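cron nightly-structures :: item 1 of 1
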Amino acid sequence: MTIDTQKVKEARKELNMSQGQLADLLGVSKVTICWYENGDRTPSLEHFCKLADILHLSLNELAGREVSVVAEEEEEYQIKLPKKDLEILSELKKYRKVYKSLYNDPKRTMKLIDKRMK
């Protein structure tokens, strides 16, 4: 099982928690938390579940999986997105041509953008 390293770091910071504080709550060393956040180590299943509880994340969020949201016709629903993701989408939509290209063929467009940035 993989862990969304960015999600761990963001959730910890949102809770104004240091790596040391999170380590104490999880029962591991500060270095272990650093490894989790850098993607150098993957937590055991027990620590994975406990980490999700401490950081107030679902197991799917912690694993970096998208959660499907289905609503009946007139029901409202909400999904949580990190502020940074919303900022990126907002900026991206200002560039209609790029946005449309990403929408139609995200893999190819990202390869072209990456190639241009090198």
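cron nightly-structures :: done
The chain has eight helices and no strands.
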